[in-house]
Amino acid sequence: MTTSSPWSCILWDVDGTIVDASVGILSRLDRCLTHFGYAAPTRAELVHWIGPPMYDSFQKNVGMTPEQSTEAVAYYRALGKADGYTANVELYPGVGELIADVAAAGIAQATASSKPEVQVVALMEHFGLSEHMQAMAGATPDEMTLATKADIVAEALRRLKAAGADTSRPVLIGDRHHDVDGAAANGVPVIFVRWGFSWPHESEGAQAAVDTMAELRRLLLTAEV
């Protein structure tokens, strides 16, 4: 029995899709916002923070100016570097095995994350997933040069193509509305996962939405006799 896929390559969002980094994110946001004189978010309010670029979130969620947001991002990232990029981060159950099985089926994979690329690479290496990725795309450290999901998806596809991967039938796995919008800007369909931090309506526009890893596996891999 062999395994195939309806997709020629798979792009993965990271936060809320592959990893749960909410404990560390909440701790850093608490320290960062308190430092700048703002109220720290509750865990329930993390839905407003996890996923989109922090540069945008500081402006949208607490009303910072672009200049203040740039300073806050730098402070937040310094906290993350001091804490360690892999501290307080866990893989969602079953995702590591699924990524390994996709690779074993010969399907090219890449990350396409709004998280800074240095952190994405550290996480993929820490969890032993980098060997299954033909490209690891993330945001630039300032979250401005390369920050929008549309640009990051485009960059992930560019790197996959440069690596010799077939990018004719891509799909993005993500958990926020900006994943859907950014993928759509590149003509890429989305499989929306509901185990991350999102509102129910955010899956609108996705080709499919799943609640479990088993459901996602069925959409990514097909057994052939």
From TrEMBL:
<dbReference type="InterPro" id="IPR041492">
    <property type="entry name" value="HAD_2"/>
</dbReference>
<dbReference type="Pfam" id="PF13419">
    <property type="entry name" value="HAD_2"/>
</dbReference>
<dbReference type="InterPro" id="IPR023214">
    <property type="entry name" value="HAD_sf"/>
</dbReference>
<dbReference type="InterPro" id="IPR050155">
    <property type="entry name" value="HAD-like_hydrolase_sf"/>
</dbReference>
<dbReference type="InterPro" id="IPR023198">
    <property type="entry name" value="PGP-like_dom2"/>
</dbReference>
<protein>
    <submittedName>
        <fullName>HAD hydrolase-like protein</fullName>
    </submittedName>
</protein>
<dbReference type="InterPro" id="IPR036412">
    <property type="entry name" value="HAD-like_sf"/>
</dbReference>
